[in-house]
Amino acid sequence: MVRMTGREGGRAVLSALVGAALGLGVYTFVYAKGYSYFSNDPAACANCHVMREYFDSWQRASHHGSAVCNDCHTPHALAGKYLTKAENGWNHSLRFTLQDFPDPIRIRPANAGKLRANCLRCHLDMAAQMPEEDCVRCHAGVGHGPRR
Amino acid sequence: MKLSRWTYLELAGIVLIGVVVLLLININQRKREARDVFVEVVKLTEDTVEPAEWGKNFPREYDGFKRTREMQATKYGGSVPFSHLDKDPRLKRIFAGYAFELEYNKARGHAWSLQDQDNTRRTKERPQPGSCLQCHASILPAYRKAGGGDVLKGFEIVSAMPFREARKLVDHAIACLDCHDPKTMQLRVTRPAFLYAVKALKKSQGVENYDPNTMASRQEMRTYVCGQCHVEYYFAGERKIVTYPWAQGLKMEQIEAYYDRISFSDWKHGETGAPVLKAQHPEFETYSQGIHARSGVSCADCHMPYLRQGAMKISDHNVRSPLLDIERSCLTCHPFPASEMKARVEAIQDRHAALLSRAEDALVALIDDLKAGGATEAALQLQRKAQWRVDFVNAENSMGFHAPQESARILAEAIDYARQGQIAVLRKR
What ipTM, to 2 d.p.? Predict the structure, then answer.
């Protein structure tokens, strides 16, 4: 039997722990379909159970043929898109795991701004003449239709 | 002892692993919640009246149901009992000669429906029929037993029994069985009076042989289950069959026309002798005239809003005033702060309460004049009309909210008929 020094023993235990943490971490990530959040697939957003009814109501809305979640809810430049995903992903998973969020959920002002920018991205010709800045105040049903 | 750097790193690693494991367990639990909506612990049958048995399979819904015992007040309603008669002494005059002059309290939640019926002076001091139990008890198995297997026959037999005798046949207040099929959990309507009445109502609209259990949409059922009981009714004939007077329609004057046609009156007014009507909580009828009904919003949408529990979404079975849970009840459709919605509702209710008070003043003034002499048959009929209108609105539990404009219209008519009655009396003198 080889006797290990304190430093060697510490390294061995730590390696085992790091291995276990990595393995468990990767397993949890895959089990929770963490990779899907890098995609554009609307079904990924409904992984988080809270989004189910928003996913369903999107399927009943006029925009579902032409825009997915990311088209309206995240910026289109690569960095902005993944920063938005990261920030909201962190907030949503933290609040949902701790079961600490208002119901019904509401879009936050910062995200509403990104949404508005995306309305204009496609509809600028028409929307440039509109005095009202908040598109969905009137067009409430275009992204999410009836909920039941 | 001084711990080495390695020990700290190892401890940090163990904590990290612990956190990941907890997260994994949590995700697993949420996934299971989303997949397995219920676990069948006990077999439920048509004879399972005990709500606690249903609660074994549906603990979340049962928990809400039990909470209907809680008492919470809103500005005008809620479930904290108070005496309407003490709060508004005019009602003693309006109900003179009728059981409601004895005791008339704000109703409490579903879980109290049988106990409060047992204890009111209206059933203790005045003879009442078994009919009352159609809506105060979970009574279906008792009907089936009394009718030898035939619910509708049992309904007629039990209705005709004296209240205290029929009371021995039931043990539970309104419960699960009354609105749910025990096999499929589908919503269903079971109250015979409702089944007859909605059939007659639909016939008047040109639909023959209407059966809500097979022909209504899910959203309609989310209103009909409540409309089984939260309605205007009377006891028809000597056998005291509970009957909802909808054969000519649901509106106040259509129901009045129905009563006029069969020359029905609930009692002779104690002060004037007028053949008057008592309205009973016509919530379904009033709601049906309002903007929410028109927009396809059901009773359950506001009174049993969806409630998230983990990854599940259930209907809150703590049936109560939407003002006690404005976020879930109103904000699902109305994108405004809860304080704004409360202000809107209370603005409607304050205006309504003021108008209702004026209408009661007018009615009491007519009763005073009729008593003082000069009462003619025509004037007594005007009391009947005014009284029916005041009570149709007053007995309805929403302080005008279910249909504000319709309620205001009815109260305007009530004031008009009361004052017409006074003029008729003065002319006669």
Answer: 0.82
Mean pLDDT, range B384-392, rounded to an integer? 98
Chain B touched by A5 (CB under 8 Å): no
CA distance B407 to B401: 9
293-312 of B, contacting A, C-beta below 8 A: 307-308, 310-312
The span from the CA of A76 to the CA of A67, in Å, is 12
Other CB atoms within a 10 A radius of the CB of residue B86 amount to 11
Q: Do A53 and B313 touch (CB under 8 A)?
A: yes
What percent of chain B shows pLDDT beyond 70?
Answer: 100
Q: What is the pTM of this model?
A: 0.89
Q: Which chain A residues are within 8 Å of B28, Cβ to Cβ?
A: 31
- Domain A42-138 - what CATH class? mainly alpha
Q: Is A4 on the interface with B (CB under 8 A)?
A: no
Distance CA B54, CA B29 (A): 23
> Each residue of B137-152: pLDDT tens digit?
999 999 999 999 999 9
- Name the residue ranges covered by the structural domains of chain B: 51-334
Question: Quick one: angle between helices B377-394 and B338-371, nearest 10?
Answer: 160
Nearest CA in chain B to A102: B327
Domain ranges across chain A: 1-31, 42-138
The answer to whether A31 contacts B28, with C-beta atoms less than 8 Å apart, is: yes
Show which of residues 100-119 on chain A sit within 8 Å of chain B, judged by CB atoms: 102-104, 106
Fold type of domain B51-334: Flavocytochrome C3; Chain A, domain 2 (1.10.1130)
